[in-house]
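ENTRY TYPE: paired fold submission
RECORD: A
CONTENT: sequence, then structure tokens
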Amino acid sequence: MARLGASRMTMPTRDFIMSSASALSQFRPLTCASLPSATQATRLVPHPPDLLKWLKREGGFVNPSLRIAEADSYGLGLVASEEIPKGSDLIKLPHHVPLGFSFTEPEGGDGTDSVLVKLASQVPEELWSMKLGLKLLSERAKVGSFWWPYISNLPEYYTVPIFFPGDDIKKLQYAPLLYQVNKRCRFLLDFEKVVKQVVENLKPNDHPFEGQDVDASSLGWAISAVSSRAFRLHGQKLPNGAQVDVPMMLPLIDMCNHSFNPNARIVQEQDYRDPHMLVKVVAETEIKRHEHLCLNYGCLNNDLFLLDYGFIVPSNPYDCIELKYDGPLLDAASIAAGVSSPNFSFPSPWQRQILSQLNLDGEAPVLKVSLGGPELVEGRLLAALRVLLASDMESVKKHNLNTLKSLSIEAPLGTPNEVGALRTVIALCVIALEHFPTKLMEDEALLKQGVSGSTELAIKFRIQKKSVILDIMRDLSRRVKLLLSKETIASQG
């Protein structure tokens, strides 16, 4: 995997011109520096318009028992000032309040929108947040934007890794996330050139950013604002009945924090193009006084939480580590585990046939596998280990792939085979741990010394990854011990 040097990942701090409701325009810095030392959440302007009043004025509804307040390390959030019964409406947004944009419109319409469509067409689909981010930047630059009361309340800083100093990016110590951070930084630096080229000779009325300079720093702010705050709403239905999801910014609703056990949920009434569409948040449970409103952002691992949202979830049940399925690596792991006659590098034809069915061999295989999360061991990897450690083709072919991929089905190919497979995974975990330059105890000691916000996030991220690995090792070791004790009892009986 190609990598960009960490020292180049931190983008230079530049000035970005933005509009204000009180002053027609003012200069405000957009920085890609590390987190500010202040604990208070910093909004885009020092004294933004009252967001709650704006929503109510536009026909929205905010439960009288809700208020905006600091939410510990998560910045601003929504808090219940009084107990709120289950099923209560918490927030309602009329159809014109969410901020979205259709990037499939023809270029024959409004000049500004046509330029945004052209720019968005050059953004890869996986970075959809940049597409909506272009619209967000356009509205931020526009004097008198309808959404200014919302935009001015957005954070000035985001805690995502593209804003980390280079040394703190290195401190993540986890190659898959480093690759993604480098990839986004490279994109932003390259896309800055694209934007400048597209808008260079535009007429003032066609300039989507009011003639203001848009650089990698401001693009980074926009992509972070959208990735950490946008929701996907139900869009139009396709002829086959499938429904297209449309990303949109939902003012105030995006101040709800995350929990895997949320006390609120989003309800969308009607299609997003319907003038009577209403997006609302409803109390999923009874909400106690002083309790923060929480939605479930998704069953995500800590890579995605940090990359897109700028935080990690301790003891995240969906966190995992990524590995590359590699024959020589598996051979080394199985030998280290004391498994005799490993055959990972040179599988027999019948084994290769099954590996192809698992998409681990043949044309265009997907070699990325994972450990951790709900599966504990990804089914494709577990099935491959069971098959490659088996010598009897007929006994393997008695079972379907779903059986071979399931950890809950105990030893389908016999105890020795299962013990070998699990011990190989344990050895893979040991190898993965050795790839981290620091030990878990060293990380915990560093946190106690007091570090910057971005350094703290980086250290906590790698602590969680190491904890995932150790938890997998403990679980699989327990399974091996149980299997061996059952075999001993059976042999004695």
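RECORD: B
CONTENT: sequence, then structure tokens
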Amino acid sequence: MPEMEGKLISIDTFYSEVASEAVSKGAHIVNDVSAGTLDNNMIPVVADLKVPYVAMHMRGDPSTMQNRENLQYHNVCKQIASELFTRVKDAELSGIPAWRIIVDPGIGFSKNTEHNVDILVGLPAIREELARKNLALSHVPLLIGPSRKRFLGDICARPIAPERDAATVAAVTAGVLGGGAPLHSTSGLLLSIDLGEEIVIWARKKTGVPVIRINSMTEAEEFLKKYHMFAIGVFEKYKGPAY
């Protein structure tokens, strides 16, 4: 399709066969809401495909994720980070390099409204916990997908999904300020993304933190690869093997 020229296509699936077929037809990214827990072949297949992999946090499966036992957290951000770390570790040990992995805390998946708000506020805490477990993950891309989700309707009394666009803009802006990247970037959200990014850049410049602009997936992968190798070297020098 001419309209897709220069654009990236992500396939959302937790089935390895679907992922493989989609990539063979031109998809660039595999987005797996189960982080490999619902298909044991998913991670090895993605490793062979050599494409970026989104590992999302979810407990159970889509039919059980909102069960009472899957909604039990004592520290939602810390536990999400810990559970995601396990999946990232398994993915890397199975052949997916860390610089090709994107993590998603799974807003709306085995989370209630309070948990979802905690995630939006606590993205830096999730990143910090991941980095505490493995320094190389301190720069892992964090994907968020709050668009029109039910928790926004619960908070803003908007039971109909199309009426949640303004709330989505606010949630996306909060996520960007916390270091996340929105999953759904429609025209109405692009301004909030741009504003959030500029606020982050301005704040970093004020404090002397270097700002690195990345303009393509290739540049992003190269940056993450270099940082990962550096961080692994530091970690292993002072603390032993990373895993």
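NOTES ON RECORD B: The chain has a mean pLDDT of 85. The chain is about 50% helix and 10% strand.
STATUS: closed
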